[in-house]
């Protein structure tokens, strides 16, 4: 979604001052949750590409032609494929336990627990995916390391793309969702016990299974 909107604005197909489709239309078109749509629009607003007015809607910024040349490096995340994302996650997220077991606070674990509870209570795939992503973001926050936080922010951007959503929707069976929920609880328990080796192994096993379920290989 972000990639599409940026390309439409860069090309001029969405011209300065033009109104964007409503959140509901974007959600349906890209099979994304309303929350994901709002985050994408918020990012584009922060980049200066769009403006939002309560009661009127979302519009391409009037000065967008001045903004576009400066944003190419800021949109590189949306060029990353889901397959590339999973390869990178296996390398990066498996390194987080060493910091989490040292620095995580009680508040960090409360946030992880909340993400798990909300993901298990989710009634839609989109809602489950949101809280799944929030849990992994909570892992990054628990490292108390700005590098991991930046990396997970990029991960979130890619997960909000339509391609990721379609892959997840097609691959997430009730049985697999149940397995992911069990894995999430086991990971958090190991981190809470400050067991670096076990938590690293559990995160790696979880990500490998997600990768296999998404792409049918590896």
Structure description:
- The chain has 218 residues and is mainly alpha-helical.
- It folds into 2 domains: 1-76, Arc Repressor Mutant, subunit A (Orthogonal Bundle), CATH 1.10.10.10; 82-215, GntR ligand-binding domain-like (Four Helix Bundle (Hemerythrin (Met), subunit A), Up-down Bundle).
- The protein has helices at 2-11, 23-30, 34-46, 64-67, 82-92, 97-103, 106-121, 125-143, 146-159, 162-171, 174-192, 196-215; strands at 50-53, 57-60.
- A two-stranded antiparallel ribbon has the order 1-2.
- A hairpin with a 3-residue loop joins strand 1 (50-53) and strand 2 (57-60).
- This is FadR family transcriptional regulator.
- Pfam families: FCD, GntR.
- Residues 1-63 form the HTH gntR-type domain.
- One of its GO terms (molecular function) is DNA binding.
